[in-house]
Amino acid sequence: MSKKLLKRIFLNLTIILSFFLSILTVKANEINNIDMNIYLDKNGNANIVETWEAHLTEGTEGYRSFSKLGNSTITNFQVTDENNQKYTSIPSWNVDANFDNKAYKSGINYEKDGLELCWGISKYGYRKYKLTYNINNLVTNYQDTQGIYFNFLNLNEPVENAKITIYTDTSLSSSNAKIWAFGYRGEITFQDGKIIMNSNGTLKTSEYMVGLIKFSDKIFNTSNTSLKTFDEIYKEALKSAKKEKIFVFFIISIVLIAFLLPIIIIIFIIKSIKKMALISWSQTLDFGPVGTTLPKLSEINYWRDIPCNKDILEAYWVCLKYNVSAVDSLKPGIIGAILLKWIRNKCITVSKTKEGLLNFKDNNYALDFSKMSRPTNKIEAELYDIITTAAGENKLLEPQEFAKWSKKNYQKIIKWYENINKVVEEELENRGLITIKNKKVTKKEISVNIREVNPKLKEEAIKMQGLKKFLLDFSSMPEKEYFEVHIWEDYLIFAMILGIATKVAEQFSKLYPKFNEISLLTTDIATIAVYNMAEACYQSSFEAYESMCESNYNFGGSGGSSFSDGGSSSGGSDGGGFR
Prior knowledge:
- By secondary structure, the chain is α+β, with helices and mostly antiparallel strands.
- It has helices at 3-20, 99-102, 230-257, 262-282, 312-321, 327-344, 378-391, 399-408, 410-430, 456-473, 485-498, 501-511, 515-518, 523-551, and strands spanning 30-40, 46-56, 61-67, 73-81, 88-89, 105-111, 114-120, 125-136, 140-141, 146-153, 162-168, 177-182, 187-191, 194-198, 209-215, 285-286, 349-351, 366-368, 396-397, 434-440, 447-453, 560-563, 571-578.
């Protein structure tokens, strides 16, 4: 559970208890307005000009806290006030210094988990401060695209109005970017080639302004990379939003019912959070010092054998965890691979749905499951149940029929993908390739179980990458090798997992025309019938999942959305105000 969520829960508890006990708290300091202008340069670094307007009657300094910055760094911090007086930057900031010692000075207070940008209040009354600083590596190269996931503003006191403007040399719009915002009830929009986040009123202490931006094109020349895909970040943010909203509502409901016992409830919350934290740790996969980063494709040798003991589920898991292929290729690929396996084993057949020729491009076909028995393999059995339910009583599954069913029953498709990971990881544990080790992870030396991944699985991932390279380059090799039909069929099935079945099948049909005559896995079936059907299933279910997530929250403006909660896993702003 995130520190931000814990902080928000306690803040809500305080507000509710204060209401029932009729305690009024008056804040002497008031922050009237914060305006942030964020320019992204060609390297993905942010040059920030931040203007604060406030009325101050107490305290010695203003500050902005940042944590979980990852590869990002903050530099070149300077402060100027409403009289255009530039504050003296000092190398070491002392938060305990008095009012006079901090006057007209600024500096950075480095902490264990982050840093604070600090400056002296200098005098009371109406004040206007201009803060300038750089955030290096704000833009991230994810595995599939470039993006930003950052908490731009999160203070310990309310702000009457807050506005954030993000821009670059390239005009930003819905044609080259997608935008989401979390943590506040305002909006995020595209305006005049810029991205605008606006609180539309008071930004409460329980709110924060997190921005999630996906750039469709590679606009920036940044070296800041992540092992995750943007798709994974997006899903984590939405999942966090939904969970936090439910969780906070649940806690507040309890307090409303039993507000006379706040201490007991708080203790229960803390214990529950600790327990949830330990559970999440125990489910964590630790890939060790070797990590999941693979060598470049140009550095990989060809691999002609089938890796992972020819186990398609294990191959899918390895490719997914080590980013051998894109998620959008792997997800439909595993469905297609299982379907090809069933066709090769004569469990299912391809039949016409209309009179005339069997036409794959016009979807004039169906997969016939009428003679197939339910598999004994757990994952294949679950897919069989999904497909036969979608097909109906005649057990003839048409492409559009599968897509429509998947859209309405996306939860079952998503659950099936999750079960693949569980089943494969249980098997890897049984074989000693994933081992559970006890590890101390907290300041109080609490021990939890970490699941360590054997480096041998990375070797399998490299072999999968080598196989991918071999299959893509086969037609251009000067000397063509001869393989038995069953080897070519294995290649097609694994090419389906890797998302390259279309290219591989084209090579087969040109180099070995007789392949389509002697194998049940004709190139048309492999590349058009099966893959199109699998892709339609995945895309329909994923789009339905996205639509479900987004429909639970308020949209703010054209081209983007603003959610009331969530985004707590993002790094960035982590408190601030005047003290």
